Amino acid sequence: MMNLIPNLVKAVDTRRSYRNFLPEELNSEDYKHVLNYIRDLKIPFDHNVDISLYLAPKEESIVYFKGPRHFTALSAPLSILEQAKLGFIGELVVLFCESINLKTCWMGHYNKEVVNRIVGNDIGKNNSKLLYCIIPIGYPNKSNSLIDSLSKKILSKKRKTVESFLHTDSLTEFPENIHNALELACKAPSAMNSQKWYYLIQKKEDKISIELSKPPGYQHIKWKYYDIDVGTAAAHIWLGLIAESYHPIVKLENINTNVVWTFLLSI
Ligand SMILES: Cc1cc2nc3c(=O)[nH]c(=O)nc-3n(C[C@H](O)[C@H](O)[C@H](O)COP(=O)(O)O)c2cc1C
After folding, report:
1. Angle subtended at Cα 94 by Cα 97 and Cα 139, rounded to the nearest 5 degrees
2. What is the pLDDT of residue 93?
3. Which of 153, 166, 186, 247 could form a disulfide with 170 if both were Cys (CB 3.0 to 4.6 A apart)?
4. What is the pLDDT of residues 58-111, one digit of tens each?
């Protein structure tokens, strides 16, 4: 995992959500790469997230656009902490796929009937879990698609600065390598590119703490599980800090029904 970090960080810059795929399966080499990566994934906290790779039948549509045949399904218990962890883990898979030239799109809204039929038996074994998202994985269709070019224009292009995410109580001056890690989080995917999270940087004795969370009480109008989205930003910060040679201690807490991430750094 650690030797992949530079490629995952590079993938942050090139990744965007794709909505126009070739209707093909992954070739056996790519399939094995993704499968092995998922199997060997090292996560810096305990979790109960399940992530598996599935193949959709040729004639079935799993999403509203031209999808690929393969997808991962992400399920977890009904808890906001597990939702946040699911976002973190799913995003590490997205970035790995991008690093080997496979395209992806996080999908909270998908064809439930078809996907449940494909995945159903697995989730059914333990119905205390919910299938929150799928991530189609495949090869880009180079020919233009209206859906893809519109979503690229409307959603993917807006990128905010680190400063615009800083909490009012945050330090505004901090080491450049921390700034670099936070810059990666400004490129994290979120439902409709809403990116409703903040960074709170504080000095605590000989440590720096970076807090990441959605504003207390925030709810997205079309998406109930927004802690998943903040989890994607947490994955970007974690990768960025490791790439900058930090060894962050990662903590997640449920504070007043809000997941608060803390990255603690020795300085
Ligand atoms: C948790 C989550 C759920 C998403 N669900 C959908 C979805 O149902 N349909 C869709 O077209 N895009 C979905 N997206 C993709 C976002 O629209 C996309 O990430 C965002 O617009 C930013 O664009 P980018 O990923 O190209 O940077 C989802 C993203 C996340 C993180």
Report:
1. 45
2. 98
3. 166
4. 999 999 999 999 999 999 999 999 999 999 999 999 999 999 999 999 999 999
Question: What atom of ligand 1 comes closest to residue 189's alpha carbon?
Answer: 19
- Strand 207-213 to strand 259-266: parallel, antiparallel, or no bridges (unpaired)? antiparallel
Could you check whether 2-152 and 157-266 share the same CATH topology?
A: yes
Distance CA 47, CA 68 (A): 28
Determine the distance separating the centroid of ligand 1 and the alpha carbon of 16, expressed in angstroms: 9
**Looking at ligand 1, which residue's alpha carbon is closest to its atom 23?**
156
The ligand 1 atom nearest the CA atom of 132? 1
Q: Tell me the per-residue pLDDT of 19-40, one tens digit each, with 9 for 90 and over.
A: 999 999 999 999 999 999 999 9
CATH of 2-152, one of 3.30.1780.10, 3.40.109.10, 3.40.605.10, 3.40.50.150: 3.40.109.10
Residue whose CA is at the smallest distance from ligand 1 atom 9: 107
If you search the block for the tokens 């979790």, which residue do you land on? 47
Residues 6+ apart with CB under 8 A from 52: 38, 72, 73, 119, 122
Q: Which protein residue's CA is at the shortest distance from atom 3 of ligand 1?
A: 108
Architecture of domain 157-266: 3-Layer(aba) Sandwich (3.40)
